[in-house]
Fold this sequence. Notes:
By secondary structure, the protein is α/β, with parallel strands linked by helices. Helix content is 43%, strand content 14%. The strands form two sheets. Strands 6-11-7-8-9-10 form a six-stranded antiparallel sheet, with helices on both faces. Strands 2-3-4-1-5 form a five-stranded parallel sheet, sandwiched between helices. The longest helix has 36 residues, at 271-306. Residues 270-336 have low confidence and may be disordered.
Amino acid sequence: xxxxxxxxxxxxxxxxxxxxxxxxxxxxxxxxxxxxxxxxxxxxxxxxxxxxxxxxxxxxxxxxxxxxxxxxxxxxxxxxxxxxxxxxxxxxxxxxxxxxxxxxxxxxxxxxxxxxxxxxxxxxxxxxxxxxxxxxxxxxxxxxxxxxxxxxxxxxxxxxxxxxxxxxxxxxxxxxxxxxxxxxxxxxxxxxxxxxxxxxxxxxxxxxxxxxxxxxxxxxxxxxxxxxxxxxxxxxxxxxxxxxxxxxxxxxxxxxxxxxxxxxxxxxxxxxxxxxxxxxxxxxxxxxxxxxxxxxxxxxxxxxxxxxxxxxxxxxxxxxxxxxxxxxxxxxxxxxxxxxxxxxxxxxxxxxxxxxxxxxxxxxxxxxxxxxxxxxxxxxxxxxxxxxxxxxxxxxxxxxxxxxxxxxxxxxxxxxxxxxxxxxxxxxxxxxxxxxxxxxxxxxxxxxxxxxxxxxxxxxxxxxxxxxxxxxxxxxxxxxxxxxxxxxxxxxxxxxxxxxxxxxxxxxxxxxxxxxxxxxxxxxxxxxxxxxxxxxxx
Length: 538
């Protein structure tokens, strides 16, 4: 309708997928890399989750373009099916012959199994990709798991890609699906675009459509990000309606009022959100008054405790958040975050998500897990064998740990929690869905030394592994060290002198205390070095 008015070749903000407009942000590229890595494995499930409109289908289409020609793909768009309907759909997609009139779970499963094994002998593999997978029933998910049991000569001919909204993660935490959850070889939770990525996204689509003059001023792109919260689908809706409004008013440029009108038309007003914030802030004020009164009563006891020696981090339970994390180390109020002068170089940065729980929610997302803000605690990682580790340390030690971490930044004004996400030439910080880059001197000036990270625990680490121990823990350790050093020796289940010497060698190679005892400090780098999909700073 407005293409000719703006001299465009085509409509730039259509919500229907178009490969010509493909825009892969850093997060989309990371999601794609995780999925590709998962497909390198021998069978199993690959999981991609994200909120509505964040670009999961975009990543999916980009993935399919890169799949090798020796792979057959069943792309299932309607997951609301019974077990028989699902198997029949897979047969239809992969052109597997079956008797329609006598179709049953057994006949369909046997047909797929025979086809898969024959396909494997031909040097081919198969992928079943299911979109909107949060709608799959438990029985259908279990049937998919059984399909991944098909194998020949220890090779599996089938991999399943599940793409869905965040509810899918919650569903996979159910006890009856624990076997399936354990077979997920790669997972990624797709977050919305950052402010900068949103601006690039809008400009990219306009350029592809043939825009020769600016239609949106730069300051208006920030306004669009504010309303859309970085969700590509919402960006498309707002931009499309804004340009339609400009066309109807015969204006060559979109104005702020036009954007506000577009937002109102598509019912994206932030009023409800702001009312919710006001309600929460009212409760926070009341809570602060109660805490102030409590502190006055308990002051002698509190000051007495400050004089006590600090408990060693090694002796603190990983899941006791109130002990391991100094969440209330400073009296912070959400309303003061946006007034921190040391963030003046980032005028558009929203610091309202600067509380520890927000940062922990973001850190889980970096690992591919979505948790609600109310449930953002270290205990949430138990389902994925993720544990919290906290320490007060140096930047050098943090870089050596090489895990994304929540760090506390502070000045005389206040303190704020953020996630140190990546280290390249600069240090990338995540605050909610926003990303900024800072230099080393700035980070050194404001970082308190407090950090909290997540890491994947291979087994119960209540007691460290020591010389003389026998069992599965030692067998796991022996296998992993053989992989690290390329040894062809058979793994052993006894911690003997030779294994201890190998442990000492690994500890020396990684600048650890070389005592031959395998505890948390040794396991953290060992686990990370053996799994390329584990998040890392460097």
